[in-house]
């Protein structure tokens, strides 16, 4: 930390901000992870009590979303749209006029 502070002081950084900058430069030593991005054992033990609740919440939310999705598909599949008025079929004259206008 002293080395980082002396480098920053040589570059003209104010003394009051040297401590903060040096801490930021050396912050990797204070992170609670090991080399392979694994939490320390104490943090794992502390988070273990929430793991079951988090898994149950995730399954609950996933089940709710899946239930809504499949319910919506089931309702739409059962709909026959009988209440929607359909236009009458075009007559032969209308079909020929349409074909002539298209070409």
TrEMBL record:
Residues 92-103 have a biased composition (Basic and acidic residues). It is found in: Mitochondrion membrane. It is a single-pass membrane protein. Residues 82-103 are annotated as: Disordered. The chain crosses the membrane at residues 50-71. Residues 43-83 form the Cytochrome c oxidase assembly factor 3 mitochondrial coiled-coil domain. Keywords: Membrane, Mitochondrion, Mitochondrion inner membrane, Transmembrane, Transmembrane helix. One of its GO terms (cellular component) is mitochondrial inner membrane. One of its GO terms (biological process) is mitochondrial respiratory chain complex IV assembly. InterPro entries: Coa3, Coa3_CC. Component of 250-400 kDa complexes called cytochrome oxidase assembly intermediates or COA complexes. Required for assembly of cytochrome c oxidase (complex IV). Belongs to the COA3 family. This is Cytochrome c oxidase assembly factor 3.
């Amino acid at each position: 930390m002293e080395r980082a502070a002396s480098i920053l002081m040589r570059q003209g950084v104010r003394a009051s901000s040297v401590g903060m900058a040096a801490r930021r430069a050396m912050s990797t030593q204070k992170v609670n992870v090991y080399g392979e991005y694994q939490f320390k054992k104490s943090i794992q033990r502390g988070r273990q009590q929430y793991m079951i609740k988090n898994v149950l919440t995730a399954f609950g939310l996933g089940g709710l979303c899946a239930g809504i999705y499949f319910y919506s598909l089931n309702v739409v599949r059962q709909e026959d749209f009988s209440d929607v008025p359909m236009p009458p079929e075009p007559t032969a004259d209308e079909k020929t006029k349409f074909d002539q206008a298209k070409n």
